[in-house]
Description:
The chain has 242 residues and is mainly α. The protein has helices at residues 3-6, 21-26, 28-32, 46-75, 79-103, 108-115, 127-150, 154-159, 165-196, 208-214, 221-241.
Amino acid sequence: MTDEAREDYQTPVLEGQGASDYERYLRTDELLSLQKPAHERVHHDELLFQTVHQASELWLKLASTEVQEAAAAIGHDQLGAALRLLRRAVLCLRYVTDQLDMLGQMDPWEYQQIRVVLGHGSGFDSPGFRRVASVTRQLSSAFDGLLARSGVELIDVYRRGRELEDLHSLAELLTEWDERIWVWRFRHYSVVARALGEQTVGTQGTPVKVLGKLIAQRQLPKLWEARARLVELFDAERDRAG
Ligand code: HEM
């Protein structure tokens, strides 16, 4: 390569559409064409609504990819790698939850205009959330397998915390992952209640109240049951001692 060519940082070298390598690599032309143009929007806030939903799908895609990889790492007893991947996934869910704040900026009367162009569109069909549910099941089985290989019960992971540090960190991150799903559900419910009230029926026929009930659902119930069991064990041991 000549000195002249080496200094030419402006000419794109990647294949694809776009005037620069930034636009070609990130495919910004396609990405930015995925939101309705101004003349097709029934309301100004449609851009806000689409941006939050599309960005959520991207974070959920990353989150579930990392959880799937973490489940595989657990299957190979690579706990350090699994911990690192799960920390990222948890952060993704935090971002998805934080983004809901933006929808609180939407006026409930104005939202009615957007609602009519959603057809039967419903979050139950969110590919991101569907995948979250499926990879969480994989994570749960991988963790059960790990406990079985290690010959310990979940409550022992807590009772012998320091001795089983990696297992303990993993159990806590799994708990955080499940907690994040539940916190998202709670926050989503409050956003829906602000936009539609609590007595309304959604675009796919689900009463808003049903969303409230889903908050109580746990994807990884064993982690929460273990806590209740620890309370019982602690009290029983104290009664015996006392
Ligand atoms: C103003 C904003 C929003 C409103 C009014 C709203 C409304 C609703 C309603 C009414 C349902 C029940 C299903 C039905 O439509 O009949 C639902 C479910 C759902 N929505 Fe939303 N939603 C909003 C924002 C979001 C965002 C940003 C996401 C992010 C991906 C999302 C994801 C979901 C999911 C995953 C469900 C299934 C419920 C669950 O599994 O807990 N929604 N939403």
